[in-house]
From TrEMBL, chains A, B:
Residues 135-267 form the Acyl-CoA thioesterase-like C-terminal domain. Residues 31-107 form the Acyl-CoA thioesterase-like N-terminal HotDog domain. InterPro entries: ACOT8-like_C (IPR049450), Acyl-CoA_hotdog (IPR042171), HotDog_dom_sf (IPR029069), Sec_Metab_Biosynth-Assoc (IPR052389), TesB_ACOT8-like_N (IPR049449). This is Acyl-CoA thioesterase. Pfam families: 4HBT_3, 4HBT_3C. Gene3D superfamilies: Acyl-CoA thioesterase, double hotdog domain. It comes from Haloactinospora alba. It comes from the Bacteria. The lineage of its organism: Bacteria, Bacillati, Actinomycetota, Actinomycetes, Streptosporangiales.
Length: 271, 271
């Protein structure tokens, strides 16, 4: 707490002209040779919000064209419509002149004091102190740097699935995520962490023993509430794995049990 | 069967230059003064596929800026990346010089013979012959033309909910949809009907007695399989209704029980 965290620094944008921003990508967010998609989404969201008079990215759709590597990222944000309640922007991220990710982001204000008229029943997930801390490939030479950027805790069932010992073949992962304690803990703006949180988990197909590279083709997420500070509970699941494609739906709840983010992506299962 | 249906004619596009298309909107797809969003999505998908070497729109994200009315629609499709497996395009629809809907659509080929590696358990929904045919506001003066464009059948539970007689307050609707028999039945291409099908239902909040105008802010849908001809089973549900916003997730299965489409939208609940 207090001062910028590594996430805050890594997602800082610099104005470079009307609607133009740059960010210097932090190699700590690499998974292999490619930057984590959630990290790029967080930077693109910052650019959209810098251009919008509304404070929250409520609905954001990203198409991933090419992976990003180390170095400077160029982000262009173009306002499509400014409304009283909603402002919609197109945002494109490029490196070395090639477009990598395109997004359309609708910004609005989410009332932090809103009480839901309806919320679906809360899933039955063990508490954080019943979960195992995730330390991927610990003891191995090739620990990906990214695994240190987000603290992850898995339920006992999820833990078994990720170790290939699941009793049944179910592509579902559950547990808790929070900004990395070793990187400085809570981020300046808990809403800025949400795009990273929905895309920081191992691919849900890992629950079936497939740890291969799973490039995201498209990811849409909706912010549904302003999160309370603290760990977020997550539930990730797939409905269909077929023909080299899988969907991954990730829901996040804050410590008060409020659904704060809903995400769904379509990805390729690596070969 | 045989010959073009009204849907096929209504979604026909005419080339008007490189990447440019026009369509003459059919007033039969109006809901009040605004064209149904699924109808516009079907036209924009046709433009994307006309520009792509891949035959299926596998992942499509739409942001709705302004409602469309009667008359000519101008559609511009711009290819962002052509890949061996996926082509991604941006598509914009305009009327009278104003952008109405923007989309990013990734096209690929879905293998019609693919057998899923995994599919989530099939929901328990009554068969079509146990369902009630939906005839909205029949007997009233103001039957919206759109209600005749898609045949809808509701389960007994859904029927009760839509009549305000649900035993519990659950925003979930289930049943079957198919191209309108009175409009000529099955469409030329069953995949072309999917964007209409995911957005043809009453808003899921209607299950709670709210039949008000519910403008969609964003809708993303993924095509997961080539549908068999015939009615599609649907399940629509909301996770959260809060602060004037609601999500609506719609899944569609074909007669063989294969999940063919997954859709989620974020919408405003009308005041």
């Amino acid at each position: 707490m207090g001062g910028m965290t590594r996430f805050d620094s890594a997602t800082a944008i610099t104005a470079a002209g009307p609607g133009s921003y740059t960010a210097d990508l932090d190699a700590g967010y690499l998974i292999g040779d490619a930057m984590n998609g959630g990290y790029l989404m967080a930077i693109m969201q910052a650019a959209a919000l810098a251009e919008s008079s509304h404070p929250h990215a409520v609905s954001s759709a990203f198409h991933f064209l090419r992976p990003a590597g180390e170095g400077r990222l160029h982000v262009e944000a173009t306002t499509l419509k400014t409304g009283r309640r909603v402002t919609t922007l197109q945002v494109a991220a490029a490196q070395h002149g090639a477009q990598l990710v395109v997004a359309t982001i609708s910004c609005a204000e989410v009332d932090a004091a809103a009480v839901p008229d309806y919320q679906a029943p809360f899933p039955s997930i063990p508490t954080l102190d019943q979960c195992y801390r995730y330390e991927p490939r610990s003891g191995q030479d090739s620990v990906p740097a990214f695994s240190e950027r987000v603290d992850q805790f898995y339920t006992p069932t999820t833990w078994e699935r990720l170790r290939g010992r699941g009793a049944e073949r179910v592509p579902e992962l559950a547990g808790y995520v929070q900004p990395s304690e070793r990187d400085g803990g809570a981020t300046e703006d808990p809403c800025g962490f949400l795009p990273l949180a929905v895309d920081a988990l191992p691919p849900v197909v890992a629950a079936l023993g497939s740890w291969r590279w799973s490039p995201t083709v498209e990811l849409t997420w909706h912010m549904r509430a302003v999160p309370e500070p603290g760990p977020l509970m997550f539930l990730a699941r797939a409905e269909v794995i077929s023909d080299g494609w899988f969907d991954e739906t990730v829901d996040l709840w804050d410590g008060k049990g409020t659904l704060v983010a809903q995400s769904r992506q379509l990805a390729r299962s690596g070969r």
